[in-house]
Amino acid sequence: MASPRISYLIFSMLCILVLLSAGEDTKLYVVYMGNLPSQANGDSHTAAVSIHHDMLESVHSSREAAQESLKYSYGKSFGGFAAMLSPSQVQQLSNMAGVVSVFQSKQLQLLTTRSWDFIGFPASAQNTNLAYQSDIIIGVIDTGIWPESESYNEVGFGPVPSKWRGECHTTSDFPTCNKKLVGAKFYRTNGTIPSGEFLSPRDGHGHGTHTSSTAAGNHINNASVYGIGQGSARGGVPGARLAMYKVCWLDGCTEADILAAFDDAIYDGVDVISVSLGFYRSFNYFEDSIAIGSFHAIKRGIFVSNGAGNSGPTMATVINYSPWSLTVAASTIDRKMESKLLLGNNISIKGIAVNTYTMEQPWYPIIYGRSCDLNSSNHIQMEGRIVLCDDFNDFLDYTIYLGRGAGLIIMSDELSDMALVWQVPTTTISTKQGEVVLSYINSTSSPVARILKTTTPKAPAPIVASFSSRGYNPITFGILKPDITAPGVDIIASWPRNTSLTKNIGDTRLSNFNIISGTSMSCPHSAGVAGFIKSYHSNWSPSAIKSALMTTALVMDPTLFGNGDAEFGYGAGQINPMKAIDPGLVYDIGVDDYVNFLCKEGYNDTTLRLVTGDFSSCDFKESSKNGARELNYPSIMVDAIPGEPIQARFPRIVTNVGVAKSTYKATISAPFGINVIVEPDTLSFSSLNQKLSYNVTIEGGPILTNKLLSGALTWRDGIYNVRSPIAIYVIPK
Ligand SMILES: *[C@@H]1O[C@H](CO)[C@@H](O)[C@H](O)[C@H]1NC(C)=O
Ligand SMILES: *[C@@H]1O[C@H](CO)[C@@H](O)[C@H](O)[C@H]1NC(C)=O
Ligand SMILES: *[C@@H]1O[C@H](CO)[C@@H](O)[C@H](O)[C@H]1NC(C)=O
Ligand SMILES: *[C@@H]1O[C@H](CO)[C@@H](O)[C@H](O)[C@H]1NC(C)=O
Ligand SMILES: *[C@@H]1O[C@H](CO)[C@@H](O)[C@H](O)[C@H]1NC(C)=O
Ligand SMILES: *[C@@H]1O[C@H](CO)[C@@H](O)[C@H](O)[C@H]1NC(C)=O
Ligand SMILES: *[C@@H]1O[C@H](CO)[C@@H](O)[C@H](O)[C@H]1NC(C)=O
Ligand SMILES: *[C@@H]1O[C@H](CO)[C@@H](O)[C@H](O)[C@H]1NC(C)=O
């Protein structure tokens, strides 16, 4: 499934065709060099460029060739560059001093609003602390932005915060930024610009306009898509500023550009970065542009929110799983987008789709088009008819449009939990519902039907979307991923005025809003809430904010249909902004702790010193190679060994951010047959910011099934409930 519309739902399954020919075939590579040399800052960029030229010159025939090959010199926030290189040059550079990793610049893909009310975050609560909200800047790395959207209107905003040192790349089609949209830049190493694109920060796609308005768009009344989903639209932190870093284009996004955006965003002074991008494959942390960029961001106190990926419900498909990122799954809100199908025999079938059309005639003939591939469709007479298809492909609705069909019914069990926008009147039904339609078609000589415009009835929620990527963590088994879930199904947010709802040729429907789904949508929900928390706690570290989000999350119901993967589907639960601003205790993690974790994960001193820029060294004296267990993470993941009993210790340290004098008791919910021991089980604080340690010991097993066992540890003091999920799983070796 990869139609242009669905593709941003699908983090690409990129088969990297590394066509390493023996010749001088060059490709774009990232040469990552870790932290900046000490004392370096944005001003020493010229020096960095010169070092990069020298390095390239030593592998090229001439300085001209070296300069020609260089695409970016990073050096504002971390070291490295991007260049066109041959395999032999890659080899030589990999061996040079100061180089952490050299990797090909992979192509990544893109993976209201009722959603805020649903998660208990009403506009009245959001409109608090506005003076501090206006100091917050959310950086969005995406497809650009439609600056004229009301979501980015500057009315009511004071001067741009003085900490901002970013820029606005103005062009004839992007004349200016403003006090709301404080910065906008674009990055494109590839000289070929896809048609329909703007060579500017302007969004020709729609994704970036949608995600940025979800993160921090202004409050807009009467938002809807042709009347569907009518309500107010607003971002998570509507009083904050936005900065757009356009790295994704209609043909995808490349890592060299993404790193250039991180390099700038970190330097520019953003507080939060939202990255709804990904790549469906596991990489080491320092061969993955998003993990690298996020690491340097958190080093500077910048919170990073990432989408968990759209490759569910298959196990271990979660992406963006580094322990320093917030990895966000996607779940439903309590309304669905229902587009009913009426059959001539008065049977009504509840299909799912965003159908903006009201059919002119009461009934249309209905025919069965089977798989409806282009060739067979040519043979069916679809003009004026509703066509039932039992498969869907890239251009199905476009085919029906070209054939002047009256409408489309798609029978597929893959589209059951999200509503897509289609070019013609369309509804999607399950194969079981399809049987009813087929038997009606068979039962009469002139079957007729009608597809109704979408309505939005209530639905049970929250349910993790089937497309949302699932744990376990494919690289570090002992860190539970995803971390959290947020609304990511049928989300209404802003859309470029000139981009049609489907982007198909012939679709003339323009709207200031559109409805789309994906972890691309849940990611900016979390970024916005992180910004909101930061407006209350400007001195909190990214990991403290993440802890607040996780330990206060709404506990999900694993028995609801769709939630069977439990923590591997939703992590700690559904994001809960009102609770997260006042969590009681936080699990803080400093850069040193991540370094310690990386040591135990097998990264050596040489690599670590480059990445951290200091003389970090791996001190294994007290380590037991349990980097994941010993990281002060707000969740607990036991990666059990097949056939062996479990014996695992998780040291934790909590910081009091609630009430100065308070006493917390541990409440344990242990899976059947497993012992969870917390020592000490009472924590008495006498002051704010005081830290106290405890150990969790988990014993039992061996576990025979490969089913996830769930439990929880909750610290309670009568006011706060600080909950960490416990997940136990036998990781297949
Ligand atoms: C540049 O983009 C075009 C498509 O837009 C693609 O065919 C081409 O391979 C890209 N070039 C590089 C060097 O990535
Ligand atoms: C609300 O939006 C709809 C559709 O865009 C429009 O027809 C209607 O006039 C608007 N109502 C108000 C009160 O602005
Ligand atoms: C469908 O319902 C309408 C109105 O209730 C009724 O007039 C009509 O006879 C029904 N048709 C069939 C085929 O049952
Ligand atoms: C569709 O038809 C064209 C022309 O008749 C043919 O070349 C092509 O192979 C067919 N495609 C499929 C998938 O059958
Ligand atoms: C409808 O008829 C077709 C053949 O005309 C047959 O293949 C199919 O099984 C029938 N479907 C139902 C649901 O009766
Ligand atoms: C948007 O479309 C309108 C109408 O076609 C056109 O006048 C305007 O220039 C377009 N805007 C941009 C930025 O392309
Ligand atoms: C450190 O690790 C890197 C990357 O795995 C490797 O190239 C290098 O040789 C290692 N250095 C030492 C001193 O082991
Ligand atoms: C946790 O366990 C370790 C190892 O047994 C011990 O050294 C440490 O003191 C314990 N911490 C607390 C707070 O009990």
For the residues shown, what is the average pLDDT?
A: 90
CATH superfamily placement of the largest domain:
Peptidase S8/S53 domain
CATH architecture of the largest domain: 3-Layer(aba) Sandwich
Please estimate the helix content.
10-25%
Structurally, how many domains make up the residues? 4
Side by side, the strands of the main sheet go 7-10-6-13-15-16-24
Number of helices: 19
Overall geometry comes to: globular
Distance, first to last CA: 30 Å
**Segments where pLDDT lies below 50 for 5+ residues?**
1-23
What Rg do the Cα atoms give? 26 Å
- DSSP summary, beta strand count: 35
Structural class of the helix and strand makeup?
alpha/beta
Could you describe the 3D structure shown?
The chain has 733 residues and is of the alpha/beta class. The protein folds into 4 domains: 88 residues, Alpha-Beta Plaits (2-Layer Sandwich), CATH 3.30.70.80; 341 residues, Peptidase S8/S53 domain (Rossmann fold, 3-Layer(aba) Sandwich); 114 residues, Glucose Oxidase, domain 1, CATH 3.50.30.30; 104 residues, Immunoglobulin-like, CATH 2.60.40.2310. It is 22% helix and 25% strand. A 7-stranded parallel sheet has the order 7-10-6-13-15-16-24, with helices on both faces. The N terminus is likely disordered. The chain binds 2-acetamido-2-deoxy-beta-D-glucopyranose (NAG) (8 copies). The site of one 2-acetamido-2-deoxy-beta-D-glucopyranose has 3 residues, from helix 18.
